[in-house]
Amino acid sequence: MAAMAVALRGLGGRFRWRTQAVAGGVRGAARGAAGQRDYDLLVIGGGSGGLACAKEAAQLGRKVAVVDYVEPSPQGTRWGLGGTCVNVGCIPKKLMHQAALLGGLIQDAPHYGWEVAQPVPHDWRKMAEAVQNHVKSLNWGHRVQLQDRKVKYFNIKASFVDEHTVCGVAKGGKEILLSADHIIIATGGRPRYPMHIEGALEYGITSDDIFWLKESPGKTLVVGASYVALECAGFLTGIGLDTTVMIRSIPLRGFDQQMSSMVIEHMASHGTRFLRGCAPSRVRRLPDGHLQVTWEDCTTGKEDTGTFDTVLWAIGRVPDTRSLNLEKAGVDTSPDTQKILVDSREGTSVPHIYAIGDVVEVPTTVFTPLEYGCVGLSEEEAVARHGQEHVEVYHAHYKPLEFTVAGRDASQCYVKMVCLREPPQLVLGLHFLGPSAGEVTQGFALGIKCGASYAQVMRTVGIHPTCSEEVVKLRISKRSGLDPTVTGC
Amino acid sequence: VEQSPPQSPGPGKAGDAPNRRSGHVRGARVLSPPGRRARLSSPGPSSSSEAREELRRRLRGLIERSRVMIFSKSYCPHSTRVKELFSSLGVECNVLELDQVDDGAKVQEVLSEITNQKTVPNVFVNKVHVGGCDQTFQAYQSGLLQKLLQEDSAYDYDLIIVGGGSGGLSCAKEAAILGKKVMVLDFVVPSPQGTSWGLGGTCVNVGCIPKKLMHQAALLGQALCDSRKFGWEYNQQVKHNWETMTKAIQNHISSLNWGYRLSLREKAVAYVNSYGEFVEHHKIKVTNKKGQETYYTAAQFVIATGERPRYLGIQGDKEYCITSDDLFSLPYCPGKTLVVGASYVALECAGFLAGIGLDVTVMVRSILLRGFDQEMAEKVGSYMEQHGVKFLRKFIPVMIQQLEKGSPGKLKVLAKSTEGTETIEGVYNTVLLAIGRDSCTRKMGLEKIGVKINEKSGKIPVNDVEQTSVPYVFAVGDISEGKPELTPVAIQSGKLLARRLFGASLEKCDYINVPTTVFTPLEYGCCGLAEEKAIEVYKKENLEIYHTLFWPLEWTVAGRENNTCYAKIICNKLDHDRVIGFHILGPNAGEVTQGFAAAMKCGLTKQLLDDTIGIHPTCGEVFTTLEITKSSGLDITQKGCG
Question: Signal peptide position in this chain (chain A) (predicted)?
Fold first, then answer.
């Protein structure tokens, strides 16, 4: 999800190069050879990456069109312009996360003198409507922005006819042919269904659906160990739903594993149930309408069942390329993943066709109930690259000031900085678990980009009292074996 | 003993000291980090005789503070022999490698004036000049050296610290960790309203900590309003209870006070809850609550007494007004409140009082948040104004009268315009003065030992190693002249001071690009220069200022206003668009600013911001997409959504 944002941001720098190519000699040559094509640039996919490209190219005076079509999810959910991030990703996710955080704040409020009778119930419909309305306003905003920049928008499903031509099919079945000198494929990806599991497709939903549910999902089983799985389980628990996460192997693969286990620990201590080392085998609908899920404990081989109102698959995403007829344009894809093969500059096997967007990159903040922000290398990765002997890890547990009066447990509030051991101890990675982790991490990401050393970070004066000041107060190395828990203030 | 301090030299610099190893002996504290050119005299425009005097003073300081002080050269075999001798005796010594400091030649000259010895090594043991290599070995063979080494300090303590706040405590703990005998004196003179508190100083008791917690209470009020929009359901009008909040906050503070006591005890620092007053050199009189007097002596002193709120000096102010010293432990809700002043303390207090539902007016003599970026300051003020805080600009109180006693009572405030003859009157339950703070330096006998203070401000001038006009007396925290008045600064300077005094470190506190945050209802975080200051220093034509308004995602659904939060950076065009000023007005401004402050320490430029992938969706990411310059005059309002 957040990967779309990554793509958008990444484009800022890379796209400048790209648009020069479009505007310059390459274009001239193409037009000269092929005569009149409809557009200088055609963008397939109206997500963050595609829209950014289209707008930037239009700004430079090119004739640009965007084609976007949302294939309804197996459960029939559809949405507007803006792609994953806006409709079924970062934006609704963070808003529902915020709803859950507010639930926590309501519980804090009496400690701070606010006389709120507890418990306070939560109304899914009201939240969902507010979130959906905001997303719709963003859809509209994107439409307006395209119009303002004179980018032609088609709500059609596109497939290649040849390397310069795309055929679009509108909702009513009407077909239209569009040709362009340059074509950008930015169709993103969609959640993967475990097709081998009986009932998965009929009864399960994905992140494509959860944010658009009109009614509360009720008791929910989230299957998967991705950040999407944990984030969804986190906010569902936070708004008071009975939520279980089923994880077959490693949670948050690719992230620092110590941090990952602390994220899980925190969720578990705040009411999310976890079924570790289990894999679902079938889903059935019971006569009373509930879903009965059968799973296997992978170590013992024993079967178990449970009933839920909702089953949410969050086991990964697949690129949305199959319907594009890429072979007609001669664009090569990976046989196993269907991903388009690109070079470092997003070029495909066809010179004037590019692919951008849902690149496989981890987001830098996971919005679980206790947020996890990270930048740079995980501890494992640092050790793998540089060797245990050359890595120094500084770490600390801390207690956010706001937690004290509220009587909140801060066991998992933790920060660690992974550095090279040799002076000047270059910072390789920063990992922060606590409130506002995204806000805390952003600036330090810049610091690391500037080549910050441990000493430089330590020389930065803290801002008191904040959580982020804990980063500039890291004095205890793991190697020292000293206790990193908080003592006093 | 650490051979290479954590601030070890950068790559490629190690080669500057090819002979380092020969002079590298276990047990020796090397005062100049190997490979780094340190200076013992402060650079500056002072005349050469003054500079020489200063250097002499510092050398004296080094000699007085060290059990064994060796002036050496890293490649000198005689120096190495002497260092090995002390190492074999298990004696730690301070070593200054004259070939590794910029002003080594000058040091050697001054040393020869002091000792009549022109060569190195030049050895001092317990302040006694022993001589060079041969003399040291002779002294060793005759037993004189061992005798000199056994001589203990004639003082009760190695270090006495006056003031148990952030700076004093951090200095005390660090000195104790380095094995020194340390005493902390802390005594809170009750406020005119009779408020007093425990160990820990302003920040913990009547500053940052309770302030941020009350700010949090106000933010929770906002969160409660927001939460309805996010589906949480409750119908009742939520009321705020001042006593519940204050009690919870005071409980937390008590636990912190206790924590400080404990940590001093653990480190064997003597803590005395008494008032300290210098009576003669190296000697302080200590008076407890009962008036009992005791005298202590110490080799060195640190003054860290901090500041207290200023009063207006008008009729009724001390009798009826409160200050931030009283507010956080006020046993009753202050009710309708007049806040006098426009300092960050004034605006923060006004902000949270309004946030918990009180009727609040701020009386401002001239500008808001003097010293801060004025564009940001005005935005902070106008947000407060839009959220119910009333402002009376260009007025000053002239008289406070009590109309009714009570908890709270009723006060009549008479104020006059700063521009004309107009006067106004208002009735309030509480009047909170936040017009500034005065240093606590005047009633502690500093004049008796010759520590100079700035007569006007009461602040203590210090050099770049926190030393006052008296070599064995140092000052840290809010009372040191020209330094930022911030807790983390005090902590850092206190700690580094102890390391320099007792730990053979030369690292000085870096006061450049100190970030800070004002916890007004809309938080304001900044680092580096205010726009006005940047223009003054670098000239407008050499700056590019990028800015934008932004709408935090959480505010959209909550129905809070767009085009209110604001981000601005100031770049120096003559230095690769280096970011020299960073300003953000928005939620979690403190959390956002910290990392950028670290990045600014590492030379953050606009290009680097542009090349960085933002964390989505956060407020902090706005700095990675800044496109509009102020000079372009383009519209920065956000239409609908990003």
Answer: none
Which has the closest alpha carbon to A97: A466, A438, A485, A350?
A: A438
Q: Does B310 touch chain A (CB under 8 A)?
A: no
Percent of chain A at pLDDT above 70? 91
Beta strands in B292-389 (DSSP E): 293-303, 307-309, 322-323, 337-340, 360-364
Give the residue on B whose Cα is nearest the Cα of A108.
B220
Contact B599 A472 (CB under 8 A): no
Using a CB-CB cut-off of 8 Å, the residues of chain A touching B613 are 6, 9-10, 364, 445
DSSP structure string for B552-614: -HHHHHTTPPSS-EEEEEEEEGGGTTEEEEEEEESTTHHHHHHHHHHHHHTT-BHHHHHTSPP
Q: Residue B504 and residue B30: Cα distance in Å, rounded?
A: 7
B616 is catalytic: yes
CB contact under 8 A, A447 and B602: yes
Give the number of A-B residue pairs with CB atoms closer than 8 Å. 317
CA B252 from chain centre, in angstroms, equals 23
CB A245 within 8 A of CB A261: no
Q: Given an 8 Å threshold on Cβ–Cβ distance, is A2 in contact with B616?
A: yes
Q: Would you give per-residue pLDDT tens digits along chain A (489 residues)?
A: 333 333 333 333 333 333 333 333 333 333 444 468 999 999 999 998 899 899 999 999 999 999 999 999 999 999 999 999 999 999 999 999 999 999 999 999 999 999 999 899 999 999 999 999 999 999 999 999 999 999 999 999 999 999 999 999 998 889 999 999 999 999 888 999 999 999 999 999 999 999 999 999 999 999 999 999 999 999 999 999 999 999 999 999 999 999 999 999 999 999 999 999 999 999 999 999 999 999 999 999 999 999 999 999 999 998 888 889 999 999 988 887 778 888 877 888 898 999 886 644 455 899 999 999 999 999 999 999 999 999 999 999 999 999 999 999 999 999 999 999 999 999 999 999 999 999 999 999 999 999 999 999 999 999 999 999 999 999 999 999 999 986 444
How is the beta sheet containing A391-397 ordered, strand by strand? A365-366, A372-376, A427-433, A414-420, A391-397
Which residue in A97, A164, A196, A464 is the catalytic one? Answer: A464
Q: How far is Cα B621 from Cα A85, in angstroms, rounded to an integer?
A: 15
Nearest residue of B to residue A447 by CA position? B599
Smallest CA–CA distance from B489 into chain A, residue: A461
Q: Which has the closest alpha carbon to B330: B338, B321, B317, B342? A: B321
To the question of whether residue A358 is assigned a binding role by annotation, the answer is: yes
Is A436–B591 a contact, with Cβ atoms under 8 angstroms apart?
yes
